[in-house]
Amino acid sequence: MTTETETAPRTTNGSGQPLLSVEDLRVAFHTDDGVVHAVDGISYSLEAGKTLGIVGESGSGKTVSSLTMLGLTRSKRSKIQGRIMFQGEDMVALEDNRLRRVRGNDVSMIFQDPLSALHPFYKVGTQLIEAMQAHRSISKSAARNRAAELLELVGIPDPKRRVDQYPHEFSGGMRQRAMIAMALANEPKLLIADEPTTALDVTVQAQILSLLQDLQQRLGTAIIIITHDLGVVAEIADDICVMYAGRIVERGSAEEIFHSPQHPYTWGLLSSIPRLDNPRDEELVPISGRPPSLINRPSGCHFHPRCPYVRDAHKRVDPQLSPVDGSTEHVVACLLESSVRSRIWDGIQSGRDAESLQRMAAASAEPDYSNVAIPVDQESEGSALSPGEEGVVESEAPGERHGAAPPQTLDEVNRRFQEERNPPSGGDGPGPGGG
Ligand SMILES: Nc1ncnc2c1ncn2[C@@H]1O[C@H](COP(=O)(O)OP(=O)(O)OP(=O)(O)O)[C@@H](O)[C@H]1O
Ligand code: SF4
Ligand SMILES: [Mg+2]
């Protein structure tokens, strides 16, 4: 297993605990096809006022790891292990009531799909007002004024008129801003932004990112930005976690990830984004192959079927995250020698052809792995959760408390969360009492 027991995650400058510390978090879902290992032993930490980028392709576990922080993956079909320490409390073990108080107040999330998170039947202002009133005693008129202020803060023109509009009357970019306003309503200490700029054009993307930076400076909020695009976090993140198949395969400062990346998957991500500092007129290279099944994961290094530098032993031995030379914070899970990785990365940057790069890996000396055993969990892929293991945290998903079926999609999870936060008693929608 790629765990980080040997390498402690980044902590504060010695003055105490970080704001957030995720420790060996694992989230598995029981499905009819087998157990989906959506998050498999990830660890990281985040200090107040800093930004962490979580980057990886679709299905790498980015959203699930963040929803778990808010208790939104709890169900009878999920198994959650590890700790998420936030302000001294473990969010994994926190009781429902306490978790609800933290959610939307100290921690907020900008959901991946703003349409599913903004209720279509309620005016944007009403949803903002309810988000505030759910957590503090504030009069409706004061909350309404603050709702308009928040819309103004996120750059929505004519905010006093806009508070009385419905989400469908907002453009995509404005809905994204309204979601940010909603997430900021209670001045959270931690803001999780899940793909906050996907589906927006490049100009609006840049505006949203600079808005987040600006708000962070003003409010001191810590931010987690989730994205599949390393380019998005290039300017804004202090630290970056690269996720593959439910694990962190490389973690370091943005400087380390962009200037001395160590994992072949990170190289792939970097080669697939345009870089202004790239002197050559080089074509962008997508990573070949597809992300693996999280039920039947590849043996050994999970990236091996797609890795151009794979050696035989890598198909059998599962690499642990370990420190990169000269850095206490930069860690990588790759079995190649660090000097070989450096040579390959230099070769990539200087435009060497793929075959000669692969020859560098093939010619490198390999340690003797003959005594390394295949981890047990890889031999039992696809097995069901054993009896008694199911629902480590039970009855927490909003629908389940009412005996409803567990949510089947993340959109549904988001919608239920939103309904829970904004129960349909607001009365300004087109239904009874609304208009
Ligand atoms: N409730 C669930 N039951 C079963 N599998 C799930 C559930 N929720 C998520 N998954 C699976 O967990 C894996 C990780 O999903 P997640 O949504 O975290 O990916 P992601 O990295 O956010 O991807 P994307 O970039 O597409 O948003 C996926 O394989 C997904 O299908
Ligand atoms: S361990 Fe081998 S297969 Fe895995 S990323 Fe490193 S070089 Fe590639
Ligand atoms: Mg996602």
Walk me through what this model shows.
By secondary structure, the protein is an alpha/beta fold. It has 16 helices and twelve strands. The protein has helices at 62-69, 96-102, 114-117, 124-133, 140-153, 159-162, 172-184, 202-219, 230-233, 254-259, 264-271, 338-349, 354-363, 376-379, 398-401, 410-421, and strands spanning 20-31, 34-46, 51-55, 78-86, 89-90, 107-110, 190-194, 222-227, 239-244, 247-253, 322-323, 331-332. The strands form two sheets. Strands 6-7-8-3-9-10-12-11 form an eight-stranded mixed β-sheet, sandwiched between helices. β9 (239-244) and β10 form a beta hairpin. α5 (140-153) packs across α7 (172-184). The model is unreliable at 1-15, 376-414 and 421-435 (pLDDT under 50).
